[in-house]
Structures are given as structure tokens and as C-alpha cells.
Write a structure and sequence with these properties.
The protein has 20 helices and 26 strands. It is of the alpha/beta class. It has four domains: 108 residues, no CATH class; 188 residues, 3-Layer(aba) Sandwich (Rossmann fold); 233 residues, no CATH class; 82 residues, 2-Layer Sandwich (Alpha-Beta Plaits), CATH 3.30.70. α1 packs across α2, α4 runs parallel beside α5 and α9 crosses α17. It is globular and about 80 Å long. The chain starts with 36 loop residues before the first strand and ends in a 6-residue tail after the last strand.
Length: 696
């Protein structure tokens, strides 16, 4: 069928005035189809299908086949679901086109700006566009889509957004109740710029974790400023607890404004309804976890990422994107404002600050002293002189004394590194880790009534007669103590005190203000509405000893998140930490996350490690990894690119380090190599991960 030379198809999706509806053809001969070629991207994990396919639009699908709809097509005799990206006048495929199979829904759920962002993400992480679209558009909920289609049919010419959009104009200076912005250096200027319709970019160092100036209220004030200029906003947080706090703060700051949440935990129907509310303009504010980075917010004016160093912002499935980086791509695409906020400052954010792309916003030293608790390290010379055993004791005298005094004023937070009772056991004689005789899994101690049961953490088989495989000894020793064991020990140390645990499958969002010992694993610390009277940060050495390049950075971030929940020193708030001397510990005592990030970045630049350079990991069998590197030799031979490995293992892995400037070219070449090997069908598959923070 030849392409029509008539003007563009008048039936196009309009996200502001509802969805398009198929037009009834007038009686008489059918005119030639306008733009008869449909370009489709299919959802498939196969690398060889990561391309755009052209199909012929039939007369029956002419009105329904608009860009953005879900379609069904056939490839090599098999049906695939995908998205119609665009209608074209002709195809450059050079073959006879197959007809488009079916339009699964009349709603164009893939907005053009989201499709553009998905393509940029696929290129940035050397992934498949179909994989990205799986995150960008929620699974179809037919009942919800029918509801929105009926709404569009009833009032196709009415804009669904009833909220008036005021014209941009100058904003008044924020008051003391506006999330504490007036206490931040350059905070007032940032809000005024937002409210005036500008697009400032900043890194915010928050000091408060509770109360009216806590970080959710600070971010909500920025969203309100962006909304006052008639623009939308998108906030991405790490987990469900942060999501609930952020949503409550937004509803308080913007009463009457429709705010939607996007989280996989809410179920497909709720997520689909929120997605369509944003797509049709029924809501202009979205808050969610990492998948929300693709939310189709109209007139986007501000993107926010809270605690961008949290590992949950990293998507564990292909293409392994990071929420922070996707938001930065989106800000460049939309020309909107950016706010990376957290109690800590990630090394990636600090690199952007030093490059001038982001501006720092933080309280000055006087404001920090007024807002933060007193922090004591048991490793300093004064505490070591008072208590010579403080370096080896799990609960030194200073920590015990601080908890005893603080219990008279309110709850005391006790942060531990691990959940469970004794999650790690070893041979008493040779210190070899204790393993299950059935599956070789790690043995752990579990409470069982008044007894202590030793069982495998993998298969659950009890171990009633342990015998070390190395030396034959029968005695076990604890190499790590979990939250349950810590709670038991604290119950003995503080008779009569209420002990609450927040760990594993029993994570609490909030605790009362009455005196209690709250034992929580890192990242599971509940909120005390009036702040904790004190905090004991135990197991500091365990956090610092992690086999990771980011162990000190991650430890500092965890410590700051916990310390921010404690009352200021002027109200008696105190934090005691048990860890050896280190740069991270010194940064915590000074409350200087930006200085720590700057020093860490300088060291990584000297060593040519991320984020000073970009990385890619190729994982698989040794022969397959070597074959991949051979196909990609043009990319790995570029100036400044170095390859480490493949290191033999199960599986083997090779690391590719390349300059930031060469990133787009290297990523495209690595992706092309993966497709080439898949098309040849030689060797086994390999996994390609680009810029994953957990690679080193």
C-alpha cells in the first residue's frame, strides 16, 4: 500500500483534552489511509528483538492505531505485545509489511515524552527499549482503562484537570513553617526561583528527620512552590515508609490538590489508576518509589530524589537503571528543576556540585549546632581513657550511661547491623564459618522458647550435633549478634524497660514518645514524633568492614539517617557510636557529609574509580565473556578504556572502565555487541550491567 500524501492524521492523542476516539467512516468509498505504517517496539527480553518493527495499518484499525497504544503483532510466527511508537508514511524495511495484529486498548498510555525518556534510558544503560517500557507503563488493568475510556467518551472536549493554574509570578519569602527553608543557605532563593517558573538545580543537605521541619515538609514546600507556578512535580523516595510520610506532607502542604502515589506494592489496579490520572492531567503531583521516575506528569517543573544514595533506588532487573540518574536525564529532557535531598551527600551528587551543574543548599554551622544532637565516639582518646575496654565492648559504659539517662526523657534508638538472633556462627577453635552438612548454607542461632536452636539459614535444617569440617571441633561461637539477641541483652541490662524491635519482617513505621528501648536494623529505624532522647549506633565496625568501595559512604549515610531522628543537643539529645577511627566517623562527629563526599570523590578521581569514570560489568561463562569482549573490541580499545578480567568464577566477570565523555559511544558499542552475539546464537548468554553502584 502506498503512503498517502495528505496532511497529518487529525485523529491524534491529546493528553490535555482526553483520549482520542475512533472516528466513524463516512459512507461511500474508503479514502487511502493516512500514514499507513505503524512503527512498533515489542516487550521482549531477547536482544535480537530490540529494534523497531514496521507493520501495515489495516482499515479496521485506522482510527484506533494511534501513537502510544498497546498493540499485538506477530514476529516469526509468534505473537508479541508492544507499543505503537509512531505512524509513518513509508517504511525503510525493504520487505512486504505484515498487517498490524490488534490494538489491545484504545488509550494511548505511552506519552511521547515518556517514550523519549525510555529511549534515552535504554541508550544510557546499554539496555533494551522493551525492558525500559515495562517499567515506564504499568501492566494493563482492563477495568480501570475502560473507566477512563468511558470518561473520555462522555466529555472528550473537556479538560479533566479542575485545578486552576496561576500564572508564574514572584513569590514571598518562605516563613519559618515552610519546611525550614528559611534556615538554609540559599534556601529562600531556591523557592523563589521555583515559584517564579524557573528551573534551579540543587543538592539539599537536610538536618531534621522529625517534626515540622523534617525532610518531608521541606520537600513538600518545594513542590508547593513549583505548583504555584502552574507546573507539576515528581518526588521519588526509597521505600514504603518514606512514601507514606512524603504523601502525608504533600497533602498537608497542598490541601485540595490531587496527589497520586505510584508503588508496585499498591497492586496493578491502584497503580494503573494513578498512572492514568497523571496521563490525563487529573493530577499534577506524583510521589512514588523508583518505578515512578517514568510517571507521565504534565508540565513537569520539578523532580526530587530523596536519599539518592539508598541502594533501593537501583533497579535489580535489566536494564539496571538508577532512579537518580533517570531523574537527571528527565530534567535535561524537560528543562525542569532538580532537587537531590538527603541527610548525607552522595559522591555522585558531589561530583555534580563540583562541576557546577548542581548548587549546594545546607544549613550553616550555627544552624547545624542548633539542630543536631551531641555525638560521642567511644573510639576517641577521652572515652578510651575513661573506659579502656570501650573499643572491644559491644555496649561500652558511655553507651550504657547515655541510654540510662535518656530513658527518663523518652525513647532511645539502638541501631544494629543485622536482623535475627545470632545470624552468623563459626567454629570455636579454628573460626571457620559454620556450614550446614546438607546444603552448605550458613548456620545461625534462632530463639525457640527458652532454648536456642541452631539451624541452616538456607534450608532450615536443624543442626543438633555440629562438627567442624576443618578441625573437627564441636563448639560454636557467635561472630555476629542480631537485633533479637541485642534486644534480649538490653532487657537484662535495663530491667523493667520496654524493648521494641524493628527488623526483618516486622519493621515499624512509628513509635510512641514514652520511654522505651527501640532496637532497629539499619534502614528500619521507626520515627518518634517528638524525636528520640538518645541513639546508640552499635556495630559500626561491621558496616565499615563491608567488602565494597562504598562501605564508608554507606555507613555514614546510615548513621546520619539515624542521628537525624534524635533531638538536638539543646534538648538533651545525644548519639553514641561504637566504631574505630575513620574518615566516616570523623564526618559524623562534625556532621559534615559534603566534606566527606568531596574527599572521597578526590580519592576516586586519583584512582580512576566511579563516579570519576563509568563502568560496565560483563558476567557469564569465561568463554562467553571473552567472546563478548572480542566482538566489542572496537569499544574497549578506545583511548582511556581499560578492561579488568575476566576473573574466573561462577560466574566469571570482566569490568570495563571508560571515561565519562566516551560513555555514549562505549554504551552503544557494548549493546551492539550483545545483540550481535544473540543473533549469531553462538555461545551462552552474558549479563551486561552499566554503572551499577554495587559493582565495586
Amino acid at each position: 500500500m502506498s503512503a498517502s500524501q495528505q496532511p497529518a492524521d487529525p485523529v491524534q492523542p491529546s493528553l490535555l483534552t482526553g483520549f482520542p476516539l475512533p472516528e466513524q467512516a463516512p459512507p461511500g468509498p474508503r479514502p487511502a489511509l493516512q500514514r499507513p505504517v505503524a512503527r512498533v517496539c515489542v516487550e521482549s527480553p531477547l536482544p535480537q528483538l530490540d529494534r523497531r518493527f514496521d507493520y501495515l495499518v489495516t482499515e479496521e484499525l485506522e482510527g484506533a492505531a494511534v501513537p502510544g497504544v498497546r498493540v499485538k503483532v506477530r514476529i516469526a510466527g509468534r505473537e508479541h505485545v508492544g507499543f505503537l511508537l509512531e505512524r509513518r508514511d513509508s517504511s525503510d524495511a525493504g520487505v512486504r509489511l505484515a498487517p498490524l495484529g490488534a490494538v489491545l486498548s484504545p488509550l494511548p498510555v505511552l506519552a511521547p515524552e515518556v517514550a523519549e525518556l525510555a529511549a534515552a534510558v535504554a541508550e544510557r544503560w546499554a539496555g533494551a527499549l522493551g525492558d525500559v517500557l515495562r517499567f515506564a507503563v504499568p501492566p494493563r488493568a482492563a477495568k480501570v482503562e475502560a473507566e477512563f475510556a468511558a470518561r473520555a467518551a462522555e466529555a472528550p472536549d473537556l479538560a479533566p484537570d479542575p485545578v486552576p493554574h496561576p500564572a508564574p509570578g514572584p513569590a514571598a519569602a518562605p516563613g519559618r513553617g515552610a519546611g525550614g527553608w528559611a534556615r538554609l543557605t540559599h534556601g529562600t532563593a531556591f523557592l523563589r526561583h521555583l515559584a517564579a517558573g524557573g528551573s534551579p538545580r540543587a543538592v539539599l543537605q537536610a538536618a531534621h528527620g522529625y517534626g515540622p521541619e523534617a525532610w518531608p515538609h521541606t520537600i513538600a514546600a518545594a513542590v508547593a512552590a513549583a505548583r504555584s507556578s502552574g507546573r507539576g512535580a515528581l518526588v521519588v523516595v526509597p521505600d514504603r515508609r518514606d512514601l507514606e510520610r512524603m504523601q502525608a506532607a504533600l497533602e498537608e502542604a497542598l490541601p485540595g490538590e490531587r496527589t497520586v502515589r505510584l508503588s508496585a506494592e499498591d497492586g496493578p489496579s491502584a497503580r494503573s489508576r494513578s498512572f492514568l490520572e497523571l496521563l490525563t492531567g487529573g493530577a499534577r503531583i506524583a510521589v512514588g518509589t523508583r518505578g515512578a521516575v517514568f510517571a507521565p506528569v504534565q508540565d513537569l517543573g520539578l523532580v526530587v530524589c530523596w536519599d539518592d544514595g539508598d541502594e533501593t533506588h537501583l533497579e535489580p532487573r535489566a536494564p539496571y537503571f538508577h532512579a537518580r540518574e533517570v531523574l537527571l536525564l528527565r530534567a535535561e529532557q524537560a528543562g525542569c528543576a532538580v532537587l537531590l535531598a538527603g541527610h548525607a551527600v552522595s559522591v555522585e551528587a558531589q561530583r555534580l556540585v563540583e562541576s557546577g551543574w548542581l548548587q549546594p543548599i545546607a544549613p550553616d554551622r550555627a544552624a547545624l549546632r542548633a539542630a543536631t544532637p551531641r555525638i560521642t565516639s567511644t573510639a576517641d582518646s577521652v572515652e578510651s581513657a575513661r573506659d579502656p575496654l570501650a573499643r572491644v565492648a559491644r555496649l561500652p559504659h558511655a553507651a550504657w550511661q547515655a541510654a540510662r539517662e535518656a530513658l527518663a526523657d523518652g525513647p532511645v534508638l539502638v541501631q544494629v547491623a543485622r536482623a535475627g538472633y545470632a545470624p552468623s556462627l563459626a567454629c570455636e577453635r579454628c573460626r571457620e564459618p559454620a556450614r550446614c552438612r546438607h546444603c552448605s548454607g550458613p548456620l545461625a542461632e534462632q530463639p525457640s522458647g527458652r532454648e536456642r536452636l541452631v539451624a541452616c539459614r538456607w534450608c532450615g535444617t536443624p543442626e543438633l550435633a555440629f562438627s567442624c569440617r576443618v578441625c573437627g571441633a564441636h563448639a560454636l561461637r557467635r561472630t555476629a549478634i542480631g537485633a533479637l539477641r541485642t534486644a534480649e541483652e538490653l532487657g537484662r541490662a535495663f530491667p523493667g524497660a520496654v524493648v521494641i524491635t524493628s527488623a526483618g519482617d516486622s519493621v515499624k513505621s512509628e513509635v510512641a514518645g514514652s520511654p522505651a528501648l527501640v532496637v532497629a536494623t539499619v534502614g528500619a529505624e521507626p520515627l518518634a514524633p517528638e524525636g528520640y532522647a538518645a541513639a546508640l549506633l552499635l556495630d559500626g565496625e561491621a558496616l565499615l568492614r563491608r567488602e565494597s568501595l562504598r562501605a564508608p559512604e554507606e555507613a555514614l549515610r546510615r548513621w546520619l539517617n539515624a542521628a537525624a531522628l534524635v533531638r538536638p543537643a539543646s534538648a538533651g539529645g545525644r548519639v553514641v557510636i561504637t566504631a574505630g577511627e575513620s574518615e566516616a566517623l570523623a564526618a559524623l562527629v562534625r556532621w559534615d557529609p559534603a566534606g566527606f563526599a568531596s574527599r572521597e570523590l578526590a580519592l576516586r578521581r586519583e584512582l580512576s574509580l566511579p563516579p570519576a569514570v563509568r563502568t560496565a560489568a560483563v558476567t557469564g561463562a569465561v568463554a562467553d565473556v571473552e567472546a563478548f569482549l572480542e566482538v566489542a573490541r572496537e569499544a574497549v580499545s578506545l583511548p582511556g578504556v581499560r578492561v579488568v578480567g575476566p576473573v574466573p568464577g561462577d560466574p566469571a566477570q570482566a569490568l570495563v572502565f571508560f571515561p565519562i565523555a566516551a560513555g555514549p559511544a562505549v554504551a552503544r558499542a557494548l549493546h551492539a555487541a550483545r545483540i550481535s552475539l544473540a543473533v549469531r546464537r553462538t555461545g551462552g548468554p552474558v549479563t551486561l550491567r552499566v554503572d551499577a553502584p554495587d559493582l565495586l
